[in-house]
Amino acid sequence: ALAEHKDSLSPETQKSVERNLAVIDQALKEIREALSLEPRNPELTRMLASTHRKKVEVLRRVVRLSGASL
Question: What is the pTM of this model?
Fold first, then answer.
């Protein structure tokens, strides 16, 4: 989604979005690693779902800022 709408964002916004997505992706990686060690941990499962929702929301904001629609 980001690649499709990137050119319509200011360079500052692009950098901010890319930083936010990098942080989210790192968190997802760490949560998945923790889940591999504790697959039955319900809190980790909730964290994974919540972090995925945050990533989707960032991508939706990019679409909104670019003036496009999903």
Answer: 0.83
